[in-house]
Amino acid sequence: MCESMAFDIAGAANVGLGAVAVLFVLVAIELRDLIKSAIALGIASALMAAVFLTVGAPFAAVFELCVCAGLTTMLLLSALDITADKEVDPERRE
């Protein structure tokens, strides 16, 4: 068997992780619930951090995981919570 034709498990893992990340991004686009969409984007970002780690870029992986997956997801969820329609108590209405 030719060396260039050999099965590369790391390359297959990168392609698999990238494909699943793209799948989560597409799910986030199609979801109607904004909270589930923000969580799907966070999962996609965490999968991209795993791709960065497997290709040998640990600093990019840590940055992606901390900033993109963690901070951005929490900011989106916080913004959704702040801007959500709160049901007003009927007795408090004037």
3D architecture notes:
The protein has 94 residues and is mainly alpha-helical. Helices cover 73% and strands 0% of the residues. The relative contact order is 0.11.
In short:
The protein is an all-alpha fold and 94 residues long.
Please tag this protein with its features.
73% helix; 0% strand; 3 helices; 94 residues
Task: Map the helices and strands.
Elements: H1 9-30, H2 34-54, H3 58-83
Helix pairs in contact: 1-2, 2-3
Mean pLDDT: 84
- Helix content range of the residues, please? over 70%
Compute the CA-based radius of gyration: 19 Å
Order of helices and strands: HHH
What does the main sheet amount to? none
